[in-house]
Write a structure and sequence with these properties.
single chain, 316 residues, alpha/beta, TIM Barrel, 8-stranded mixed beta sheet, 10% strand, Beta_cellobiohydrolase_sf, hydrolase activity, hydrolyzing O-glycosyl compounds, disulfide bond
């Protein structure tokens, strides 16, 4: 059973999300019945491989069985095949998958998650194949976390190249994935001033896709993120739909400035419609390390740690 169109429309109307984008693309919510819980996620695999561990039960209940995103990059192999397999499995289950494209050249400006495609053309080929892998299946696609917020670390020519690549990515989803809601990453609530981010989103082609996403892999509350999203909308000049990563924002950002596996963070609201933004989604996989720092010292970025997962469950 799928989400009734009238319920979808009512939910979006209540959140104030009247936008040209809503009429321009297929609605994946109407074609699915809830969000897809990835059986191949790092937490799910760890639980299956460690059934006797004392943390297996809590991680299974609180994280591994919850709907969340799958991230795709060079580790995914043939990205068209990988994306097709993931979205096909979700389609068979009548669930809505969330996918993250994370392969922009110069990714993370040499930080903990450094990497990305080796050249602009390699990225164009990769993101085109990514969109091909989704095709007509319903999906949500998150385009390149941090890519716009980190423009400041690039030189003038490199900045324009990145904007060109993000425009290309947005166009690929618009052209090849008609039942996908694609969202450009818009940073977090305190990183980039709202007017500056709105300008960057426009330059990256947000008008050609469904909207933008906030708080990916970060900890700001949904309320704070919603306030910021509305300020970005005001600067854009139209109510672009936006979603918020709620995977680790149950305790909010806190008073410290630590962003890498910090203490006292907690799981947030599970993937759902509404609550301020268009949707709250678990985009960062809870328990996957931000890098070898904080509570995750010695755990590379993207690697699952049951200890990190347990900290998020306990909120300590």
């Amino acid at each position: 059973m799928r989400i009734p169109p009238l319920l979808v429309a009512a939910t979006l109307a209540l959140t104030g999300l009247a936008s040209p984008a809503l009429a321009a693309d297929g609605n994946p919510l109407e074609k699915t019945n809830g969000f897809y819980a990835d059986p191949g996620s790092n937490p799910a695999v760890w639980v299956r491989d460690h059934p006797g561990d004392s943390l297996a039960g809590p991680i299974r209940t609180s994280i591994a069985t919850k709907p969340g995103a799958r991230w795709f990059g060079t580790w995914s192999g043939d990205v068209r095949t990988a994306v097709d397999a993931f979205t096909y499995a979700a389609d068979v289950a009548d669930k809505l998958p969330v996918l993250v494209a994370y392969n922009i050249p110069g990714r993370d400006c040499g930080g903990e998650s450094t990497g990305g495609a080796g050249s602009p053309q390699a990225y164009r080929d990769w993101i085109s194949a990514f969109a091909d892998g989704i095709g007509g299946k319903p999906a949500v696609a998150i385009i390149e976390p941090d890519a716009l917020a980190q423009l400041d670390c690039l030189s003038g020519d490199a900045r324009q190249t990145r904007l060109d690549l993000l425009n290309y990515a947005a166009a690929q989803f618009a052209q090849k994935a008609p039942n996908t809601w694609a969202y450009l990453d818009g940073g977090n609530a305190t990183w980039i001033p709202a007017a500056t981010m709105a300008s960057r989103l426009k330059s990256a082609g947000v008008q050609s896709i469904h909207g933008f996403v906030l708080n990916v892999s970060n900890f700001y509350s949904t309320a704070d993120s919603t306030t910021y999203g509305k300020a970005v909308d005001a600067a854009l000049g139209y109510a672009a739909p936006f979603v918020v990563d709620s995977s680790r924002n149950g305790n909010g950002h806190g008073t410290d400035t630590e962003w890498c596996n910090p203490p006292k963070r907690k799981l947030g609201a599970p993937s759902q419609l509404g609550g301020g933004p268009e949707m709250q989604l678990w985009i960062k996989v809870p328990g996957d390390s931000d890098g070898s720092c904080g509570y995750g010292t010695g755990v590379p970025a993207g690697t699952f740690s049951p200890a990190l997962a347990n900290h998020l469950i306990q909120g300590d």
